[in-house]
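Proteins fold. Shown next:

***
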Amino acid sequence: MVRGLKWLLILISGFFALLVTAAILVIWLIDLNALKPRIEALVHEQTGAHLQITGELNWSFYPYIGIEINQVSLYENSPGTTHQDPLVSIKQAAAGVALLPLIRQEIRINR
């Protein structure tokens, strides 16, 4: 009985160590700010509008897995438009999926 409990605790500890290692590797290896030009290009391709991200993109992990974005402006791309006032300007936004429901194969977007 004690032997089985010991192996169970080792298994659980190893799982959490693996999760922490994976989170550290994601932060270290994937630079979200390098994706800014691609995100801006995708928005222009899909909508015709111009997205400008002047702030930083950051990861968030707990209690949500997501991305935080700072200083974003969206400009319309109409032929008759001569002014450069943004349609939308956001100082900070976050998109995330709740972490614990993902384990139960549920998707909950809380922010």
